[in-house]
Each structure stands twice: as structure tokens, then as C-alpha cells.
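the six lines:
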Amino acid sequence: MTEYMDELDAFSYREKIAAGAPVLIPAGSIEQHGRHMPLNVDVLLSRAMAGRTAKQIGAIVAPPIVYGYKSQQRSGGGNHLTGTTSLDAETVIAIAKALVLEFARHGAGKIGIINGHFENYQFLYEGVDLALRELRHGGTEDVTVMLLSYWDFVDDRTIDELYPDGFTGWDLEHGGVLETSLMLHLFPERVDMTQVDDVPPAELPNYDVLPVRPELTPASGCLSSGANASAEKGKLLLDRATSAMAGAIAAEFDLTDSGT
Amino acid sequence: MTEYMDELDAFSYREKIAAGAPVLIPAGSIEQHGRHMPLNVDVLLSRAMAGRTAKQIGAIVAPPIVYGYKSQQRSGGGNHLTGTTSLDAETVIAIAKALVLEFARHGAGKIGIINGHFENYQFLYEGVDLALRELRHGGTEDVTVMLLSYWDFVDDRTIDELYPDGFTGWDLEHGGVLETSLMLHLFPERVDMTQVDDVPPAELPNYDVLPVRPELTPASGCLSSGANASAEKGKLLLDRATSAMAGAIAAEFDLTDSGT
Amino acid sequence: MTEYMDELDAFSYREKIAAGAPVLIPAGSIEQHGRHMPLNVDVLLSRAMAGRTAKQIGAIVAPPIVYGYKSQQRSGGGNHLTGTTSLDAETVIAIAKALVLEFARHGAGKIGIINGHFENYQFLYEGVDLALRELRHGGTEDVTVMLLSYWDFVDDRTIDELYPDGFTGWDLEHGGVLETSLMLHLFPERVDMTQVDDVPPAELPNYDVLPVRPELTPASGCLSSGANASAEKGKLLLDRATSAMAGAIAAEFDLTDSGT
Amino acid sequence: MTEYMDELDAFSYREKIAAGAPVLIPAGSIEQHGRHMPLNVDVLLSRAMAGRTAKQIGAIVAPPIVYGYKSQQRSGGGNHLTGTTSLDAETVIAIAKALVLEFARHGAGKIGIINGHFENYQFLYEGVDLALRELRHGGTEDVTVMLLSYWDFVDDRTIDELYPDGFTGWDLEHGGVLETSLMLHLFPERVDMTQVDDVPPAELPNYDVLPVRPELTPASGCLSSGANASAEKGKLLLDRATSAMAGAIAAEFDLTDSGT
Amino acid sequence: MTEYMDELDAFSYREKIAAGAPVLIPAGSIEQHGRHMPLNVDVLLSRAMAGRTAKQIGAIVAPPIVYGYKSQQRSGGGNHLTGTTSLDAETVIAIAKALVLEFARHGAGKIGIINGHFENYQFLYEGVDLALRELRHGGTEDVTVMLLSYWDFVDDRTIDELYPDGFTGWDLEHGGVLETSLMLHLFPERVDMTQVDDVPPAELPNYDVLPVRPELTPASGCLSSGANASAEKGKLLLDRATSAMAGAIAAEFDLTDSGT
Amino acid sequence: MTEYMDELDAFSYREKIAAGAPVLIPAGSIEQHGRHMPLNVDVLLSRAMAGRTAKQIGAIVAPPIVYGYKSQQRSGGGNHLTGTTSLDAETVIAIAKALVLEFARHGAGKIGIINGHFENYQFLYEGVDLALRELRHGGTEDVTVMLLSYWDFVDDRTIDELYPDGFTGWDLEHGGVLETSLMLHLFPERVDMTQVDDVPPAELPNYDVLPVRPELTPASGCLSSGANASAEKGKLLLDRATSAMAGAIAAEFDLTDSGT
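prediction for all of em together
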């Protein structure tokens, strides 16, 4: 049976929840990803990451958070770019809070958020914190929520394999090797490698300035080049990251038997 | 080229927007739809309706609003049901407002919201109103937004064809002939007709009571039977509704040439 | 003793509440109602409907919600019209929530909202839902709230009697036969029948467009003509609707003995 | 023609607004006022004060703000008392803001709020400030709002006449000579002088403590005795206060000719 | 050991809280105070008042609320003045609410807010009320909060000593004898008496008008003259007010042994 | 003249603003910092960093944001710890927004926020973004805001000098060498080196889990040891970071002449 909640009917979903399945919520964004990838990379990747992870631990994947927090220049090119379509912090917080409360109402006590858009993290965190505070006030103490950004589960060994010439940090990976490789492996029909703008990584200041100075973002909107991406690298990233996430979730939630 | 924004790269999207393409935003929900259909029927149908409509008028389909307002007992079975996963009004309002503001920032002056979940409507309306008020304060006067619920574009002739034994109203169509037929036509692999609970339409009071009395909702969660649904009816519904919506949008936005 | 809370002193009110009296809250609006009726028709009628209903079941009528949600073009002419004075959704929600919480604090476990302004409904619903959620978190489970729109209690037989030439739907009844007749019966001094603009019903699209196109609203602001209104029809409407509402409330709240 | 907006039809209202009439908004509350007066004293008095003032300067009286901010123990007995029915600060602020924005939209540039409930004041002030900030952002600079509490327009001479044995301050006047006299003059049928609890003024601390200590509020809920009230005193208060308010408003708004 | 929380390490703080120490929160503002005093007078004085009071009753002084509600013309000169830096009501409410909830989480059941900026009061009150409501919903009933404005603890005898020529009311004391004297006693290096603008008290109307008429505020921004201020008066004020506050808090919180 | 706004009188402040001085806002928190440092380390250090930076570029230092966002376990030990006193995200956002709007009202077009509490950053960013959006709607385009976290201005060379045995990342620097050294240099009387808990750095997972597992935070509350801290290191850190920040601000704001 599918691990994707949106493909399940309510009765099948209820059985899984009643059996104690964790719920994993992918959190994406609609954000420009250069000329070579579509606007919903973060939705596709967070959902796929959650799906592969869920398969390993018998979890359910909730429908994704499609629109996320504003793109920031130092991690996503900036929210001034046409195509990038974002929500205010308050709304991202409210969505995360509502989803935790709703899944808790369903009876899910083990919830994970699989983040695929850097800028979302703190707002998802706040939403979770508010939901748990409200649950606690209502006398519910047995809900636990994990927040994971999938790139944090790419270990140093993998980084060395993927970036033989040196790694410039996750912040500059917007539209670069990581995302492009994963897309090539998972959704090759959505990537046009002939359109990669193979230029050196962006040089961005160690602070933010608002309104952004648009000239600081490369013309492609990507902060580093995806030219060295490959489907093989994508498979490696997917395997390593989901395996590590599955391990962390199984340990934290004390899952005794895995899924598949 | 695809009409779906989430499959477009930002540069192609910018060209379409610059050429004056309207943007259509599907608004769905995650809501139980009986034993025979998945939880994301409203997302799938609003997105497909928007897609077919967009094709006829050269519009872009924005990524869908996946989570919607709470299911109400008289139109969706009620929000007490496990699987149904909803947002508070404030959040639905905020999402609609943010999307209008973001598409306006992109340069889109012609925006439509294609609603596929009855309960969303008033909150989408408020979000649009707030966005336009904010735009007006900022000096932007040239943004127009249409709000359409797709079933309102099913005309009386079609209703007579679809419901030869009499029509009980859109409010009871939750999980019934309309939605099941559309799903059979568009996503047959997601429907299991053997699981349709073929019982008479629910009898619900002419008021709301909260907390809901769960016994008023049929065991299936559907308010009427989908047993008489068929892919042919679905095709008819899709053709008639999208054709009517395309006509209304083209007229309202004064679109001189159509798409495709 | 009066059923109107605002005419009661606090001590008399406390006795009634302690005896288990339900509380009915009228929800109106300040909205243009043509040249022949005043701006507070919705306040007057919801309050009178609540009053007559309360008399039959021993309920208390709370002071009315005077200002309501924005007038929408398809049910009230639109909020662009001067005189119409409205609140944002968030505020209507907050008022409904606060009133439910306050009456619950007083000890009222049976609360009804008698809506007299179409556009209010979904926002009142959300306010009630939020209040009950907060009460539930605080451990209070014994508060029930009904939401009623008085026109939903006009049965088909009455409609046939009132509209011998055919009924065009409640949505077009803004300033028409229903409201004018009720005003003629209840507050004849506030109606000037010489000012009725006797034109055919408005023809409005099956969608909303914002900003509204003002030319779609008839010059009078009324969506149908009140020329066929009469005090007799008003009496019939009042009797039938309040009797039906009283029956529904008594049944839902299990009221064993009726009022005066 | 009446000065009360809620009795006007929209067309007559528009004429008055177009002629430059100021709009006065009464702000009341639903609050216990002892055994001898009804729960809506603050609504009745603020509305009557506004009405008499409006008559002198050709102003329009908006429908009242019926529900106000929470009663505080040192000025209204406290919000723990059954019957007192209040809104949170945020909602009072939102109502005041919305009304200023709506009347400004109508074209009213001269708006007054006539406050009749001590605890409302700061929240009305904030609502006005937020509305004017929003108007300013939108380019509207020609709206002016006055905030008046009617008791501030009772001068020292009148206080000496009304309280020959000494005045204990407006804060303790809740349910006392001021309000009871005004009610006796304006709405004698709503006062039952046999129910006045003629005890010395309450002795309340010079700070607030929450939760309130209920024993600090007198059993009647009134903070001073209304036994010395009379209709004559009420007439005097009404005349003096409305005359002073009319003078202040006419001067501030530079009204060259008065009304009626 | 210091009574100031911000100078304590967390472990020492925990011991004091565990021993039942009350927490006093100073509430100030950043507001112009004439040519002779700095912008943070209200922060300095509320913190010092809280400190002296805390010493007498073994309380802890929380870090101050630095930014407060908008300055109003009749009590602080108005928020149009450059230098005055204020928060909206909603934010002041949220801060007060959060602090009560946080100190309650720490285990503090006895909390006082020492207000030093007139305009803050009602918003602090609302924040406290909301916090206690949330605590009550969560099952916590043993938290009590006092709200004190320090000038309310200056008794009539002291006023007579300080203002031999007559007292014009606390509202006009902005930048006058009270604040200047306290500053001279506590922070003489922050006062420049040569810069006092010795003019008669401001004459302000008995209502508010927004936008403010700037000409109503004296050029200095002070509403009365501080020329008669002295360090001796400051010491007297400090001693009398803190002694009275300490007494009130000890009595209300039933503190059996006092501090240092 | 002092660079600290809270020590300036309003008239001197106005002169500086009129002369084009940038405003730097320190953002701290009240958070446990082990047994050896006080709860307001983040306030003290962000204010001192802002002060030294301001001196070099002729800027004004605004009063600090004293209470900040919740401490998170992976960067501050967690918000479950007694003593740590935090605000919700919404409130931090509102404070940052309000301050930008207020300083813009004063005429300041060059604003910097000097962050001293890791968890604040994204919420400060959102507040700035909302303020600039509101200013833009109001027609103000000439306000620029920089957001800086002071540790981002410690360069690699300095890190090598300070951590000869290897650097474990800023995230674990809570209560460690960085903060302790700065405190030893700036506020030696507030540090008690005998109380440093000299244990290895905390090992924290690469995700968040809520509610936090308290056992993951070391008993001291510090995430790494401050035992190797020294005043000399503090001076070095202060000099290097403020010099780099001054350079960045001067460049970004195009300041032609520096201060002092």
C-alpha cells in the first residue's frame, strides 16, 4: 500500500494511524531554481525524501507544504525574483501548527517534518512549539515532533565523494550539485542540463541587507553551478540521506519494526 | 509548453507573465471522501479543472492550495473525521492574501481562484479582498481577481442529464456522483467503485450544531452515493464546466486570443 | 419578564442562566437596503427573529452583533457602497468566539446564533469552532452552539405562498420581498414603500470578481424588488420561521418545557 | 430627519455625508450595573450622549459599539461577574480601526468616538491610531478623529452641584449618581430605584490584582450608591456634557454652522 | 546577592524562585523627556522603583520592558515626536503575556508589574489577563499578578510636601517635578538642570484628537516644568513610593518575612 | 557625546539623526549562560558590539531588544530551562518591525540590527521585511536595513588563534570561549571563572525534537566549555568583529566619514 497519505482513502489511513504509523510532513516552497529546473524543486525533493524515508520505517507521508517562507538572498537568491512565491512567517508558522494539531487529533503521536527549503526551518520550529504548547494545555503530553532538514543527513564522507574539489557549504547549494543531482535521479524529465549556468559560486556578504541588492544574485538565480551534477550522485544522496533519516526517526520514536 | 507553473522554470514563467497570461490558483483540501476515493480529491479536481480551463485561455496554473478550511458536516461530513486535515480560517485567508500579493508582485494583473472545496470560499474571498486593499494602499489598482467554484459552472441542462432521478443540491454532492465521475474520468486508478457505499443521501438539519453530532454523517463519510457515477459523466462535467469557466474568465479579463 | 438581555439587570439575568435558559445571539450588519429601508435591517430582523423564538422556548436574547462581515455583491450589493459599514473576517470571528466564551463563563451551555446577514455565516461558524476548541482545552465539554440563518427556516410551502410567480433564491432576496415584508410587519414606521425601486431581479454572474464591477448592482442597491411585500407576508414569515427555529432549538437542546 | 444612522436609508445617509456631516460613534459595553439598572447602560448612555451632541452640530450618530472591553474591578466591578460580556483588547481595537476606515471610505473626514465605558478608552485610541496610519500609507491625510469620554465634559461647577457632600472620582461612579441620574432622565422605565443598594463607596486598592479578589467588589456590583440620583440631575448632566462636547467638536472640526 | 535577575546566573536565579521569591517586572518606554533628561527615563525609574521595592520584600527584578506603548499627547507629549520610539498595543500586550507565562513556567506564582509609563497600563493589564486565562485553561490556578504604577503610591501628604503651590495631576507630570526629582536623586549624571524649560504647565484639551495637533505640546516636550525638582524630593518620592509598594505587595502576596 | 540613544536627550538625538547617523539596534535575549555568567549575556554583548561599532562610524545605538526568541537546544540549551525567558516568534517579529518603522519615522534611513542571540535571526529578518513592505506601500523607498550577527564577523584567522585545538562551530559556542572571553574583557565583574563547568562539547543530534529531551543539554546549560576563555581573547574578538562590522556598514551605507 502506498505511503502517501494523499493517495490513501480515509479508512486505510485510519488503520495505519491506529497501528501507530508516524506521519512525515514534507515542507517545500515555490522558488526559482535557475533555468534548468522547475519552480517546485523543494516540494518534489522534500516529498521524495519523505517518501523514501517513510518506506523504511512504515510511516505515512502527509501532503506537502507547497508554499514556504520567503527566499533569502544568501540561501535562495532572494524573494524579489519573479516566480518565487512565498508566504509570510506568520502563515508558515500557522500551517505547521495546524498540521501538528490535526495529526495529533487523528491520533498520531509521532510526527516528523522533512524540510526541503532552508528558509522554512525556524518558522516550522515555532509552529511545532506552539502546537505542542496548546496540546499540553489541553492535557495531551504524548505527541513528539522531529524537525529534519534532509541535507543535514548527508555525512562528511558523502560530501567528500560528491565534491572532490571542495564543498562551499549548504547555503550556496541552491540550484547546485545537490538539488540538481537529486532531480536528475528522481525527476530527470524536469531537468534540462543544457540550461545550467556553469559559473563560479556566488559571493555573498556575511550579513543580509534589505531591500536586497539584486546584483548580488547571479543571473541564473542559482548560487552555485549544477554542472557537476549527475543522476548517480543523486541516487547516492537519496540513499544516504534517507537511510540516515530513517535511522534517526526510528531511534527517536523507538520504532521496533521497520516498514517496507 | 505546460500550463502548470510548478513544472515551469522561472525564466519560462517570467515570459508567460510578461505576455499577460492570467494565473489560476486551484484551492483544494485534504478531506475524507469515503472508502472509494483518496483524501486529496479536492486538490486533484481543482487542479485539473484549472488546468483544462487554463489550456483554453492561455493561462498559467499556480501550484494548488493543498490544505483548506475545515470540513463542515452539511457539506463535507465534518472536521471531526480522522483523515480530514484542515487549517483555521485565519490561515486560509492569509494564504489567499499572500498568493494574490505575490502574483501581483510578479506582474500578474489577472488572477483567478478555482475553488474545489465548498468550505473554502468565504475565506478565499476575504484573503482576496485584503490583498486588493493592501495593493490599493500601495497605489496598485490594476489587479483583478475572480473567484470561481467549479460546480457553479455546471448548467441546469447538464444537471438534468447527470441526475435523471432528480438533483439533491451541491451541498450533498460530497463524495457523490459529481466528484466520483470526475475522478473516474481523470484519475481512474484512484477510484475503487467496489467500495462505494450506495445508500440514500444524508439527511442533515438546516442549521449547524457544534460540536457536531457524529451520527448525522453517514458511515462512509459521503453525503450521497457515487454509485451512479461514470467516466462519461465525468468527461461531460469536465468539458462543460471548464468551457464555461474559460468563457467567463476570457470575458471578464477581456482576453482577445485564447490559448493552446 | 423580558427575554432581551440588554433590558435585564444582572441579577435577573443570573437567575435565568442558573435556571438553564439558552442564549440566542442575533447577528446583523449595517448594510444599505435600498431607498425604502434603513441601514440596520439585518440587526432589527435578526433581533426580532431571536426575540420571537426566545419567547417560545424560554431563552434569553443577547445584545445583537451590530456590525457584520462585508457585503458581497452577489448577496448584498457589495461593500463598495456608501453606508454599508463592515468588519474584516478576523474581527467577526473574534466577536463570535468571545461571545461564546463569555456566555460559557456565565454558565450558559446552550447557545444559538440567529444570523440575519448572509455573509456572516462562515465567520460566525469559525468563531464558534475556535471557542469550543478553547473550551475543550480548558476541560469544558458541555457547551453546545447552534448556528441558524432565519431564512433557512422558511419552508417550501411558505415560499410558494409568498412568491406565487416563482422564487429566485435567497441570494437575491437582499432588500426584496422577504426583508421588506418582515419590516412592514415589525417596524412599519421604518419602511417607505413609495421608495421601492420596482425593477426585475439583478442578474449577477455565478462567480465573484474583485474589485467589484459597480454597474452589476442595481441603482437601488436591492437585488430584487420589494414591491410585492406586505405586512401580512411579514407576519406569515415571522410566525413560520420562528416556530420552526423554536422547534429545532428545543429538540437540539432537549428543552422539556417551553417559555411563556 | 433623524441623526441616527441606523434609522436612515443609505441614500439619505449619503446626502448627509456628502454635505460634510461629522460621524459620532458611541462606544458602550454589556456590563452589570447593579440590581437597579440593566446590562446595557453604557450603550444607552453613550448613544444618547452622541445623539444630543449630534443634534447640536448636525452630525450623524453611527450604530453603537455594543460589546466593549473587559470590566476592570477598580472602574466597573470586574469581568468575573456574570452578565458582564466583554471582548478582548485586540477585538475592540479592530472594531475601532474598521469603523474609522469604513467611515473614511464613505467620505467622512470628521469622526468622533463618544465613549461611555471607561475601560474602552485606550483600545479605541489604538484602533484609531492604526486606522489613521493605514490611511496615511494609502495617501489619505484628511481624516481627523476625536475621542471623548462624556464624563470628562462634566465641569467642576456641575460636580459641585451634583455631589454636595463631596465627589469621590469618576472611577467609583460605576452604577452611582452619574449613570443612575442619566438613566432616570433618559430611560426611567429601565431603572428601579427600589433596588438601589445604598452603601458607602467601595474601597479599592490603588493597584490591580488578577485574578481579582471578588470580595473587593460590593455585592451590588456598583462602586458607589445611586440613591442620591434624580432625573433632574440627569437632565443637568446631559445638557452640560453634550453642550460641552458639541462645543469642542465644533471647534476642533471648524464647523461653521450648527445643526437643527 | 543582587535583586536584579539580569545580573544573576541561572542557578542562583533558580534558587531564589524555588524559595518563593516574587518577580517584579519594570515596564518603561523610550520617550522624549525634554532637553534636560534622556530618552530612557521611564526605563530607569521603573527599574529603580522595582529594585528598591524588591530589596524590601526579597523579590527579584526582571529585566525591564524597554520599549512601551505609544506616547499620548495628554500624558507624554505625543508619539509624533522624534526620539519617542514605541510599540503597537498588540505587541505590548504580547510581551506582558509572554513574560507572565514564562515566569509562571519558572515556578513563580507571585508576579508584579511596576509600570513607569502611563500609556502602558491598559495593555499590560490585557497581557496579564490573557496569560492568566491561558494558564487557567492549562490547569494552573496558583499564579497571581499585581499591576502597579509607582506614582499611585505617592500619598496625598507627600504630594502636599512636593507641590506646595498646588498639584496639577499626574497626567501633566511628564518631564516635571516627579520624574526630574527622581532622576536627580538616582541618576544625577543624566540630568542637566540648566536645560529645564521653566514654563507653565501645558493646557491640553479634555479629549484626544488624532492626528495630534503638534502645537498643543510645549516646545520642550515636557507637560510641566521640572524647575522645582530636587534630589531631596526625589529621595522622598522614592522612599515613600517603594515603601508603600512593598507594603501592598507583601500584603497581597502574604509574604511573611521581608528581604534584606 | 555618547553613542547610546538611551543616554541622549531627544534634542541631541534629533541632531544626530538629522545629520544622517545610522541607527544600530542590539538584539539580545534573557537566557541561561551556565553557572559562570549572568542571564543577560546576549544583551550585554550585542549592546557592546553595537557600541564599539557605532563609535567607529558615527552611529547611534538604540536601546536593546532585551527579550528574544526561544532558546533552542542545539544553539542555546533549550527553552525548557528555568531562567531562560523568551518571546514567541510573532512578538519578536512585531518588535523588529515596529523599531524599523519608528526609526524610519524619525528620519533614519540607515538601520542596522546587531544580533547577539542566534535564535533571533530569522524573526528579526521577517520583521524588517514586513516593515520595509509597509514603508514601500506608504511610498517610502529610502530606508535600508542591515542584519548582522556579530560572530559572523570573526574571521578564520581569528578563529585559528582562539581555538588552537580546533573549532567546533558557532552553534556550540553557547556559554563557551567566545561569549566568556568577551564578557571577561567587557564585564569581568559579571563572570565567575571558578564556576565554569569544564566538560567536552555537547553532542547534539542533527535535528530538533520537541518536546526537547532535557538530558541532551549538559548540566551547566553551556554547550561547550569556557575554561579556555580569557580577557585577551575577548579583546581580540571585540576588536576584530567590530572593525569588520564597521567596515561592512560603512561600505553598505556609503558612509564617507567615520565617527569619533
